[in-house]
Structure formats: C-alpha cells, structure tokens
Amino acid sequence: MTQRRWLRFCAYACVGATGTGVQYVVLFALVSTKMLGAVAASCIGAVFGAIVNYALNYHLTFRSTGRHAHVAPRFFAVAAAGVVVNSVCMFLLANCLRVPYLLAQCAATVCVLATTYVANSIWAFKTHTA
C-alpha cells in the first residue's frame, strides 16, 4: 500500500469513528432500553452512522468534487452492503455464538471498515490517484 493510500485509509478510519460512535450510541440505547435486539439496533445505528460518514467522507477523506446526485447513491449502496455485512456478523456472533453484543459489534465494525473502504475507494468516490 502506498503512503498516499495508507494516509487516506487512516483518514477514512478516523472519519468512520464518528459515524461508528453514532452507531454505538443508538445500539446501546435501543438494546439497554429493551426496545430492540442487538442485530436490529445495530442496523438502525448503522444507518444513522452512514449519514454522518457520507458528509465527512465526501468533504474530508476523499475531497470529492463529484455531484451529490452521482456520489451519494453509490456511497449509500456501499453503506447498504456494509449494513448486510454488519448484520451477518452481528447475527453470527451475538445470536449464534453468544458473544456479548458490544464485543460482537466491535468485530463487525472491523469487517465493515475493511469492505466499505475498498468499495468506496474504487467505486463510490472513484479517484484517479487512488
């Protein structure tokens, strides 16, 4: 990985921490109040986190100049795939393996980070200097 790609990945991870924080707050609030189970609460949190991440990634990580009408649908398609990856990880870890839900979410977050970074880099925020 080139230094430029590494720095962009680090920026993506740092920006993502904000959206992830939003996701974890929603997850914890919905599970601790017994409004939803961990998998459903995590998905709802991921949607809120994705909205935050779009704005930050558009402006900071990828410094996109693309029109929102072009970039946003791509980003949110990647985000939807990320929600699927997140849901599968959460279901397997929290429901099948009985891993505590916050620990399961940490593992799911790592999986989503890796997959969405690649997809956003090569497609949603496609750049020629990637």
UniProtKB/TrEMBL annotation:
Membrane-traversing stretches: 9-30, 36-56, 76-95, 101-125
Domain GtrA/DPMS transmembrane: 12-125
Record has Plastid as a keyword: no
Localization per Swiss-Prot or TrEMBL: Membrane
UniProt keywords, alphabetically: Membrane, Transmembrane, Transmembrane helix
Bilayer topology: Multi-pass membrane protein
Database matches in InterPro entries: GtrA_CellWall_Glycosyl, GtrA_DPMS_TM
Domain of life: Bacteria
Pfam families associated with the record: GtrA_DPMS_TM
PANTHER family with a match to the protein in the record: PROPHAGE BACTOPRENOL-LINKED GLUCOSE TRANSLOCASE HOMOLOG
Protein family (similarity comment): Belongs to the GtrA family.
Protein name: GtrA/DPMS transmembrane domain-containing protein
Species per Swiss-Prot/TrEMBL record: Paraburkholderia gardini
